[in-house]
Amino acid sequence: MKNVLTIAGSDCSGGAGIQADLKTFAAHGVYGMSVIVSVVAENTCRVISIKDIPPKSIADQIDAVFEDIRVDGVKIGMLSNKEQMKTVADKLLQYRPRGVVLDPVMVAKGGCALMHPEALETLKKEMLPRAFLITPNIPEAEALTGMKIETAEEMKQAAALLLKMGTQNVLIKGGHLSGDAVDILYDGKEFSAFTAERIQTKNTHGTGCTLSSAIAANLANGMGTADAVKAAKEYVTTAIRHALPIGKGHGPTNHFYTLYQKGGLRNAEL
Ligand SMILES: Nc1ncnc2c1ncn2[C@@H]1O[C@H](COP(=O)(O)OP(=O)(O)OP(=O)(O)O)[C@@H](O)[C@H]1O
Ligand SMILES: Cc1ncc(CO)c(N)n1
């Protein structure tokens, strides 16, 4: 079995962050581990408070994992501030794990900032060059490039700019545009589009976390980059189509449906 680590924030309501990542890992048959960088008191409606974990504790958690266990893949989500980013970047340089998928989380669904805006430059300089693949949504790609992105052509231009910042692959997610949900992958040589029909639902809490974790798990399981993204896109589309009407706001993605279809769950009520 492959071992995959998520470095991200905790969502106590279970729909996004570390909790979404670990559920996604389990559904992909990989052994999940977690380094918590921030405790976010949030639910499907709002963020109540954010408690950042001190950099020393983040470094210790990363050491605890790497000194003992082979790490076959890493997903990085919410990083709240510059110091946390520098700490994680240093540890990535020290341990040099393969297949780092960086989801540059900036803002929660309801509009609450999960990253301090002044950390943007550190994200660009310290984190992007350490990533095998980054998965920004449209507003994140706009913040990172300074471009306005409204069309597939502009997504491609932004992806090319992001690649120049040092990451090896870029997947810009089109969830925030209208029409089909089209994500565009750029590996420095060619662009590939991954298209899914847009599902009419308000239950989209944790979609980005689900997608990036599924990609990290697929890469760890030995898939090539485009195949890993294709399979992850199919996974997240199914997880949104069958999203759970839990909570009063944006309900979470469903990590059980694919397993259930394959007969992998008994006595589950879906
Ligand atoms: N309504 C939808 N129907 C189908 N696919 C969707 C829908 N909304 C988002 N997606 C897809 O879900 C994935 C996550 O994209 P999205 O742009 O929502 O990420 P995000 O904004 O980072 O999510 P998060 O809420 O976790 O921060 C992408 O593959 C996107 O195309
Ligand atoms: C902890 C956490 N990470 C990421 C997101 C973005 O979905 C969120 N809402 N909460």
Order of helices and strands: EHEEHEHEHEHHEEEHHH
| Sheet/helix structural class | alpha/beta
What's the helix count? Answer: 9
Quick check: average pLDDT?
Answer: 96
- Report strand order across the widest sheet: 3-2-1-4-5-6-7-8-9
CATH topology label: UDP-N-acetylmuramoyl-L-alanine:D-glutamate ligase
Tertiary shape: globular
Stretches where pLDDT falls below 50 for ≥5 residues?
Answer: none
* Strand percentage: 15-25%
Task: Give a count of the beta strands, DSSP E runs of length 2 or more.
Answer: 9
Counted up, domains total 1
Helix content estimate: 25-40%
Distance between the first and last residues' Cα? 27 Å
The largest sheet is: 9 strands, mixed
Q: In CATH, what is the class? A: Alpha Beta
Q: What ligands does this structure carry?
A: adenosine-5'-triphosphate, 4-amino-5-hydroxymethyl-2-methylpyrimidine
Radius of gyration: 17 Å
Task: Identify the CATH homologous superfamily.
Answer: Ribokinase
Task: Give the second-level CATH assignment, the architecture.
Answer: 3-Layer(aba) Sandwich
Labels describing this entry:
about 270 residues; alpha/beta; UDP-N-acetylmuramoyl-L-alanine:D-glutamate ligase; nine-stranded mixed sheet; about 20% strand; binds adenosine-5'-triphosphate; binds 4-amino-5-hydroxymethyl-2-methylpyrimidine; thiamine biosynthesis; transferase; EC 2.7.1.49
Walk me through the topology.
Elements (H helix, E strand, L loop, with lengths): L2 E9 L5 H11 L3 E12 L4 E6 L2 H12 L6 E4 L5 H14 L4 E3 L17 H8 L5 E2 L3 H8 L6 H13 L4 E4 L8 E6 L4 E6 L10 H14 L4 H17 L15 H5 L9
Parallel strand pairs: 1-2, 1-4, 4-5, 5-6, 6-7
Antiparallel strand pairs: 2-3, 7-8, 8-9
Helix pairs in contact: 1-7, 2-3, 3-4, 5-6, 7-8
The protein binds adenosine-5'-triphosphate (ATP) and 4-amino-5-hydroxymethyl-2-methylpyrimidine.
The site of adenosine-5'-triphosphate has 23 residues, from strand 8, helix 7 and helix 8.
